[in-house]
Amino acid sequence: MRVEELLSAIPQKKILGVLPSYIEDIAVDSRAVQPQGAFICIKGYTVDGHDYAQKAVDAGATLLVVERELQLVGNVAQLIVPSTERALGLLSARFFGYPSEELLMIGVTGTNGKTSVTGILHNILMGLGKKSALAGTIGFNLNGTLYESANTTSDALSTQQMIYRAKEERCDAMVMEVSSHGLALGRLAGVDYDVAIFTNLTHDHLDFHGTMEAYGNTKGLLFAQLGQDLRKDKHVVLNADDDWSAHYEMLTPFPVWTYGLHSDADFHASNCRYEDGMTHFTMQTPEGSYDVSMYLLGEFNVYNVLAATAALYARQFSLFEIVQQIEQLPPVKGRMEKVHTDLPIQIFIDYAHTPDAIEKAINAALPYKGENSKLIFLIGTGGNRDKSKRPTMAAKASVADYVILTTDDPRYEEYSSITGDLAKGMLHEQYACIGDRAEAVRHAIHIAEAGDIIIFAGKGHEDYQIIENTKYPHSDAEIAIAEGKVKFV
Ligand SMILES: CC(=O)N[C@H]1[C@@H](OP(=O)(O)OP(=O)(O)OC[C@H]2O[C@@H](n3ccc(=O)[nH]c3=O)[C@H](O)[C@@H]2O)O[C@H](CO)[C@@H](O)[C@@H]1O[C@H](C)C(=O)N[C@@H](C)C(=O)N[C@H](CCC(=O)O)C(=O)O
Ligand SMILES: Nc1ncnc2c1ncn2[C@@H]1O[C@H](COP(=O)(O)OP(=O)(O)OP(=O)(O)O)[C@@H](O)[C@H]1O
């Protein structure tokens, strides 16, 4: 791209050295710099990208975007800006040509349900013959190939690049999870959403946001950033059963569609029944009511499906066809996903790692529990992250007959510190603290009897555990099946 054209995106700048005419690429990581590329130095939580500038020059960078003048060896221009983080958003969107304007862009925010709602939307869109790309916790899904990503919402450069790739592959739509970190850290700069969806707001991430109020206000950025251009066909979808929705409604002038179970809503579900491994409900819509049966389990998935339906209806998709697709939806990976085994117990893998999600996951399983059987619930939580939610998580888990307290990704924290914090919230004595997750999974199988239900929560789709800063292979399902074969055969 012509540098002059690229740099017109940043009005406040000071240039040192001779600018190259063109750059071939932009990078925020010195290890990814290409010859004739630009390198943007970002001050991170761990290191300062400015310290890697010389490495970037050695790798061929001809343009650096910096916050202060650097003494470097080599032929490189420096562009000094007040904030490289802000420049990253502006430059990335310009470099990739504002690709989000050319796709149907749907963003989903909320404490729980982002992966589920985006997965549901993606599957319905594909079922309706639309080509959809998907980005979130599970990675970047383009044409059925899954590319790993470090974050639920990736940095501004990767975000623009993913949308550009989706556009180049002629996708009609891109569905994205929008995390509060992503909003707070400007990772979504320049993403022009057509539909913004809110799932719910409950306790999580207070290590980062400090208070629920700050956390809730950050989520609001998604709605405020839809803008004021009312010629655009933009829509907002809000959960009528969550008090934060009233606040988000005020942040946007665009049409608001509501969904819910317990309040008046444009998309309202009633008569929910959980039978035969399926969920059945009646969905009232602006165009009459539909009886829906689906394989997704639990009330929380009724909310998720209502949210997805409202979003697609707002963009003129046929309700009849949407409902047909809902009836065929596969489970979302690692979200109340049944593990199919020959064992005389039912095993579910789930990603619940907030108090609210734990309550919802347990409620989803309770209708399937026999009178004399047990619900065994295994929960962990991540080390070196929000500790304040731990006792509440265990209190919610106490609805289960037997609870196993363990770790998700312990990182640098002692097992006993994590399980000890969880144990403070337990409301009964039927529990065990086992920090080693593999051992904890084996313990669940060991105490299970025929007819019992086990939910392994917290790791969901993940196939690893992070201990210190290393990822070790780990699968709750594989460990459980192996142990079950030994025990029940
Ligand atoms: C706290 C946080 O958000 N950290 C994010 C941040 O990492 P960081 O600040 O530590 O980066 P750093 O290592 O200091 O590097 C600073 C700069 O130097 C550069 N660098 C670094 C090393 C080098 O050799 N060369 C080089 O150029 C880096 O590329 C970077 O530009 O920037 C990284 C790159 O964008 C992110 O992957 C990383 O997310 C980490 C993995 C993370 O765990 N983040 C969590 C808190 C998070 O963001 N979670 C949300 C919510 C998920 C949910 O809802 O549950 C998410 O959206 O994922
Ligand atoms: N709408 C919902 N309301 C409450 N809980 C939900 C909802 N949808 C899913 N859950 C529960 O939360 C867990 C996480 O769901 P999901 O991955 O869809 O949320 P998320 O917002 O993407 O979470 P994260 O950002 O941590 O990845 C699920 O395994 C389930 O237990």
Outline the structure in words.
It is found in: Cytoplasm. The modification N6-carboxylysine is found at residue 219. The chain has helices spanning 3-7, 53-58, 84-95, 114-127, 156-168, 180-184, 206-209, 212-224, 244-250, 299-314, 319-326, 355-365, 390-397, 415-423, 437-447, 476-488; strands at 14-16, 25-27, 37-40, 61-66, 77-80, 104-109, 132-136, 139-142, 145-147, 173-177, 195-198, 235-239, 256-260, 267-275, 278-285, 288-294, 337-339, 346-350, 375-379, 402-405, 431-433, 453-457, 464-467, 470-473. It has 489 residues and is α/β, with parallel strands linked by helices. The protein folds into three domains: 3-95, Udp-n-acetylmuramoylalanyl-d-glutamate--2,6- Diaminopimelate Ligase, Chain: A, domain 1; 99-326, UDP-N-acetylmuramoyl-L-alanine:D-glutamate ligase (3-Layer(aba) Sandwich); 337-488, Alpha-Beta Complex (Protein-Tyrosine Phosphatase, Chain A). The strands form four sheets. An eleven-stranded mixed sheet has the order 9-8-7-10-6-11-12-13-14-15-16, sandwiched between helices. The protein has a six-stranded mixed sheet with strand order 17-18-22-19-20-21, with helices on both faces. α8 (212-224) packs parallel to α9 and α15 runs parallel beside α16. The mean pLDDT is 95. The site of adenosine-5'-triphosphate has 24 residues, from α4, α10 and α12.
